[in-house]
Request: fold
Amino acid sequence: MITVVGTGAMATLVAARLGRLAPITMLGSWMDAVTAINRDGVHVDSGPGADSVRVAATANPVECAGASIAIVLVKAWQTAKAASQIKTFLAPDGVALTLQNGLGNFETLAAELGAERAALGVTTQGATLIGPGHAREGGRGVTHIAEHPRLGPLFDLLRAANFDIHSSPPSDLQSLVWGKLAINAAINPLTAILRVPNGELLNRPDALAVMDAAAREVAAVAAAKGIALPFPDAAARAREVARATASNRSSMFQDILRGAPTEIDAINGAVVREAQTVKMNAPVNETLWKLVRALRTTLA
Reply:
């Protein structure tokens, strides 16, 4: 049995695709979603059509007992709680795979479950939450998962479910994680602060200058830590992503619109903390971090 931990946009997308091929249980604390999924299944708008799939949903980890795989798709600030829940139901030889945003999620899972029962992944697949149990696919992305001796069947299942899956050495994953971090740190907070879709940042010179600076700052911190990003120019790559996802609302923008906590601490905040470990400052990311935190405080 596979447990998808979370009931947000990406969790809904993953559950819908895998639910056609294997028994899926979604574990989440959002009761509106749990109720809607058990009543109506999960729905994903994709291209010209929509997928509707029956899966189980619960807020009780006991109902996930014996799961061989837990795919972790909660927000970064929820990872510690998710890890403690997973520990209660994951099979002894099971594996928890994180496909989350930000830094520190794998380390949190490994500390709770043991390194051999945690796996790191990074995805550029996007999705937007329409409502409880209902998501819209945000274009086809690529998912890289660290090689793990117990994940072979999951790789096959994900490929059969039409995910673009690649198995990579764990050392390569750090480059990809930091590459995604650079993009998220550059785009997400600005869209949340300005309340605009990704592409609008390209039309505002001042916003674009900040976006470029944030991306380059992440690249500088990564370089100081000995991590090479998977692209030569972080600012240029951020622009490419903003252009390719022009109509998308970033997950952080969606969180702000819902009045929900954001992942800013695990994205721009993490850049600041990592910079401190190599005796660097990250003033652009620190400013964005504090502005989004202030925005959330104001909204609360």
User: Anything to note?
Assistant: The chain has two domains: 2-168, 173-299. The two ends are 38 Å apart (CA to CA).
